[in-house]
Design goal:
Layout (H helix, E strand, L loop, with lengths): L1 H23 L3 E2 L4 E2 L2 E2 L17 E8 L6 E9 L2 E9 L7 E4 L4 E2 L10 H5 L5 E5 L7 E6 L2 E4 L12 H8 L6 E3 L13 E5 L4
Parallel strand pairs: 1-8
Antiparallel strand pairs: 2-3, 4-5, 5-6, 6-7, 7-13, 9-10, 9-12, 10-11, 11-13
Amino acid sequence: MTKIVLATLLATTVSLGCDMANAANPSFTLTEEGVGSLKMKQPFTDMSKSDEGLYNRVEIQKYEDEASGAMITDYTLYMDNEKVAGFYLSEYEPVIGMLHIYSPRISMVNGAKPGMSMCDFMELDGVSASVGEGMDFEYEVSIALGNICAYGWWLGDGSDILTDEGMEKAQGVAEGEFIDLTVDDVLDEAVVTDLCVYRKDE
């Protein structure tokens, strides 16, 4: 009897501990509208001192954009030491137009989240993947579901995420052309480093 009671108490303690951890670091759903209090096409309101649970620390860096002369404010949001999200605001357009999500606590309704396999992301319904001529690089890879892009272009050793077959496609792209990518064109070990909601052009 004592052993049964003790086991029950231990199980209850573990359950309560998990519930408290989940309450302290809750999960969130990412959509094209944003996540939690971070709303696309809206100004930023610092909620780090609230009980929302999305982030509790904000780091800010400011610099001048050479092309426009605008003052840019870079925001990086953390939950303790976990990097949660990042975005920037321009003094000319002080609303969130591009939002990077880094925390696996934040996922899309289909389960897509940072840290997952890039190949698994590509196999989700509705995902488009292509490679074309890039503005700043030899080529540009786009893997997205609507306005939410999956980033992970560089692995830890600095190599590209594309397989040899994918590289052949990329190097054969003509100016203004985009070619569809398949799962076979992406390395098995490539991961989604962050999800990015992009609505700057709206």
